Amino acid sequence: MALPFHRSQVRDMITRHTTFVVSVCVVVVAAGALTDTLGLALVAAVVVSVIGLIAIRRRVASALIEPLAHITSVTQAIAEGAVSGRIELSRDASSDAAIVADAINKLAARAAHDIDDLRRLERVRSEFIANVSHELRTPIFSVQGYLETLLDGAADDPAVSQQFLEKAYNNALRLNVLLNDLIDISRIESGELKFSFRSFDITDLIRDLIHELHIRAEQQQVELHTSIPDEAYVYGDRERISQVLVNLVENAIKYNVANGRVDIALTQQGDRWNIAVRDSGIGIPEEHLPRIFERFYRVDKDRSRAVGGTGLGLAIVKHILEAHRSTVNVTSTPNVGTSISFSLAEG
User: Fold this and answer.
1) Which of 125, 247, 264, 270 would be a feasible disulfide site paired with 313, CB 3.0-4.6 Å?
2) Is residue 186 domain-shared with residue 258, that is, in the same domain?
């Protein structure tokens, strides 16, 4: 709260009172022959002036000196690491002291926010390293185990050697997919991955995708269906949007049920095209939905590894679509299915 008078006014008041007191004293000395009554009046005036000076000094102390001392103390504590400290001044503090305190409080709040961000990033980095180490260790150890078994004599049995070689090869493929995903997400997050935006017909892309994945869908006893127009031009990076759709459709196949289905729908909404991938699979519990786009987050860890997931696919999808100024919408019901959709600008 601002003082009712400015510091220059305080100085003027002190100067006037001091001048008055000095003048009175001179008069008293020069007029020694005056009556006792007049002398008493002059003495009273001097006393009043002194009291006024004391009152002003106290007011200045509560308005400026004491707040500055408090500001200094709290600022020192903040500098030593207590960034949660804040300066709280009394109502008598001057407006200048209040401005300084507010500025320091804002700096402390920003420092506390930055420190929290650094701690969060360090935690994310540590978790990322731990997850990468675990994900790499699993296929490497599997390949090592199969090869050691073959070297120990299993290679002499053609049936066993063929089986072990196939398992080692599949784990090597899984390792390759994981490394490629790690490279992709690293390049996207660092800004090193350059996008090539242009107009292209997304219906051709969807038809190519269906042709590519229909054998895998048949192996999983899943039917692929589309609801798309003859053509629909969108603006984006064709290769990266293909990566998004492959990831979403593969997930819809992997986490489906026997005799299930996957539907890919394309509808126009104003100047944008909405793409939706729906499945009749196992679904995702509601409490997991906010986290499915985090790196290495798995709803069912055992099932994800069993079907060959790296835990990075949806994180890559999210980053690619953000680069296209699009958001991902997810709805899911356990044992009913999942729908994931996004939109792209008309090309």
Assistant:
1) 247
2) no
